[in-house]
Amino acid sequence: MKNLKRILTVALIIAFAVVALIPLSGVFATSKKQLVVWSHLTQDEVKALQPIADKWGKANGYTVKVISDQGSFQSFQTAAMSGKGPDIMFGIPHDNLGAFWKAKLLEPVPVNLIDKKNFVSTALDACSFEGKLYALPIAMETYALFYNTSKVKEAPKTMSQLLTLAKKYGFMYDVNNFYFSFAFIAQNGGYVFKNKGGALDPNDIGLATNGAIKGLSLIRDFVLTYKFMPKDIKGDIAKGNFQNQKIAFYISGPWDVQDFIKAKVPFAVAPLPKTDDGKPTPSFVGVQAAFISAKSKNKDAAFKLAKYLVENSALTLFKVGHRIPVLNNVLASSEVKADKIMSAFAEQAKVGIPMPNIPEMSAVWTPAGNALSLITTGKATPKQAADAMVKQIKQGIAQMQ
Length: 401
Fold this sequence. Notes:
Mean pLDDT: 91
Structural class: alpha/beta
Keywords: Cell membrane, Lipoprotein, Membrane, Signal, Sugar transport, Transport
Distance between the termini: 84 Å
Family: Belongs to the bacterial solute-binding protein 1 family.
Oligomer: single chain
CATH class of the largest domain: Alpha Beta
GO biological process, one term: maltose transport
Number of strands: 15
Radius of gyration: 27 Å
Shape: globular
Membrane topology: Lipid-anchor
CATH topology of the largest domain: D-Maltodextrin-Binding Protein, domain 2
Protein name: Maltodextrin-binding protein
Strand content: 15-25%
């Protein structure tokens, strides 16, 4: 019996010694740190992001899960509040950030995390509130001028040139959609909310200024004076007429490019024509953004991962998802410059204006669309419609308080 006890004792000592020699990482493999990313990009883009995230994770001792998510603000808020939300939201349209910001779910970006000079300034503005950065821009999108190259050799550079050519070859777009028509309101100084030191002021609405009314008058002329398009035109009708080569000019975004290529339409894209005195025509710019949840328990690591993803996925997302880069060095790369269509959208985006990201923007869309319809049907003058629009927007904002 004594010999048996000695044998068992020796065996236990050897066993403990062996265990002691095993690296702790091997014993506690399941305790490896983890970061979770919810992405609002497409399935193909999410799939392309995972290897990039894995590379960072391997170098920094984390497992990273990139999960496709198309949920609502409410679903994210519920998950975040219950501790089941992600560390990073990646690829959310920037104009949705306002609701998250108001609910205090956005963790402010550390001041020295990125070098702002490396980014398109418009994209950074889209991710900021009250002058402070709350998200990292990933990519941007806007609309520009499509033109049929078999009808027109060169894109019009000015509004006068566009009007002259459009009278002969045709021009249509979704004219009663404020998203597109804002460009003509803004080209002479109109604005939605005044930007005051990096903060948008919802009490200062610039949609009934002299410049805005001048733009609304031009929009009216597109329909009632020049009769380029019917008063009830919709985006799909305008697109169909361009695709069938019935018109030479059409305003839209990168989302229509592949359909025109498949239909073998001879086309090119150019920035929107400037005013006759050389001012750019600023389109609305949308930005896909990444933010760190204020409820994340791994904020420092999450910011490092988000920065890595933003800086190392730009070209991948350009190739896979046709996303316009927001990093200046990627925009200047040979791969991007070789794509003349996407480069044209990028040039337009540089002079664009971010769609307002504050929650009060939700009170703008319906009154603005109604005003455009009143103008293009001749039921109200541009000034009458503009004044009514601003009054309705103010009422809508007041109801939000």
